[in-house]
Amino acid sequence: MIKQDTSTMALDDLYRDRKVLVTGGGGFLGQRLTGRLRSLGAKIIAPRRAECDLTRFESCLQLLENNPVDLVIHGAALSGGIRIMRERSGEIFFSNAMMGIGMMEAARRCGVTKFVAIGSSCAYPGHLEGELEERSLWDGPPHESVAPLAVAKRLAQIQGLTYRQQWGFVSVQLILPSLYGPGDTFNLSSAHVASSLIRKFVEAQSQSMREVECWGTGRPVREFLFIEDAVEGILEASAVYDDTQPLNIGTGQPTTIRNLAEIVKELTGYGGEIRWDTTKPDGQLVKVLSVKRCHSILRWRAKTSLAEGLSRTVAWYRDHKDEADSSGGQVRSG
To answer: Quick one: CA dihedral 163, 165, 166, 169, positive or negative?
Structure first.
C-alpha cells in the first residue's frame, strides 16, 4: 500500500470528515482545538471531565467503544503553576499518569489509527540550560519543582515506544512550552506565570497599588507560545508526524520572567513598582525548546510575537475579568 503524501496538503483537506476525539475538551487548549477542528470539517468527540473520568481505564475504554474515531489527541492534564504543583503533587502525578496510560491502551484496543500525546517542556531534564532537544529527554531527571507532571508525561513516550514495538500502534508525543492567550486560567491558585502576572498588573493598575509582588528572582528563562499558534502546530503535526521521537512545538524564543513582567506592566499601564519575593522558588533556571526538527519537518511556524499575544490576552482579560477570575480552570495542558 502506498502511503499518501500529506506534507503539502492544507489542514481542511487533512481533517475534513475525519473522526477525532480530543480529551480535555473543556480546557484552555481543548476548547480551541475542538473549535478549530470543527471549522476544518472534522467530526469531534470532546467529553468534559464531569461526563467521563479519564483516570479510570473502564471510562476510557467505554468512551472509545461508544465513539469510534480515527485520531485521538490527548490534551487533558491536571497542571498549573509552582503553587499547585507543590500543593497537589500526588494528585497531579496520579491523574496525569492514569489518564495517559488508560487513554492510549483504550485507543490501541479500539483500533484508533493514531494517538497524539500532548507533552510539556517540564519533562526535560532539570539540569539542562541550553536549548532542549528531543534527543535529550532522558538525559537526567526533571526539575523537582515539576516532577509530578514531568514524570507522568514521560510515561507516554515509553508507552508509545513499547506499543509500537509489540503491536505496531502509532502514537506520537508533541512537547509544548508554556501556553497563554485569551481564555487562559486566571485563578491565582492554578494559573501559570503569564496569566498570573496579567491578573496582578491589571488589578494593581485599576486599584492604584504602589507595588506588585512577583515570585522568585525573575531570572528564570522561559518560552511562551500563543494559544492560536499552538493549535495550528498541533494539528499539522498530528496529521503528518509519525516518528517515535518526541517533537517540540514552540517558538524557540527565550524570555526571562523579569522581562515578561516588564512587558505586562507596560501593556496594562501600571505605574508602580515590582517587588521580587526571593523567598519564593524560581523553578528550573532555563526552559526553552529547540525547534530545529520542528522547522525541518513542518511548514508551521509560530506567527504571534510575545508582545502582540500578551496585548491580546490583556484586552480579553479586561473584557472577561469576572468570569476569568472565578473559573477554576485546573484541567489544562502543559
So the answer is: positive
Q: Is residue 217 predicted with pLDDT exceeding 80?
A: yes
Give how far the C-alpha of residue 269 lies from the chain's centroid of Cα atoms, to the nearest Å. 29
Q: Are 105 and 161 a contacting pair, CB within 8 Å?
A: no
Residue 233: what residue type?
G
Cα 277 versus chain centre, distance: 27
pLDDT digits (tens, 9 = 90+) for 77-121: 988 777 788 889 999 999 999 999 999 999 999 999 999 999 999
At 250-287, the pLDDT tens digits run 999 999 999 999 999 999 999 999 999 999 988 889 99
> What is the pTM (predicted TM-score) of this model?
0.93
The domains found in the chain, sorted by start residue, are: 11-179+226-248 (3.40.50.720), 180-222+253-288+303-326 (3.90.25.10)
Which segments within the chain are labelled E, that is strand?
A: 19-23, 43-45, 71-74, 114-120, 171-176, 178-180, 211-215, 221-222, 224-226, 247-248, 255-256, 273-277
Given 3-state DSSP classes, what are the helix, strand and coil percentages for the chain, each rounded to the nearest 5? 45, 15, 40
Handedness of CA 164, 169, 174, 180 (dihedral sign): negative
Cβ pair 19, 42 in contact under 8 A: yes
Band of residue 8 on the pLDDT scale cut at 50, 70, 90:
low
Nearest-angstrom CA–CA distance, 43 and 45: 7
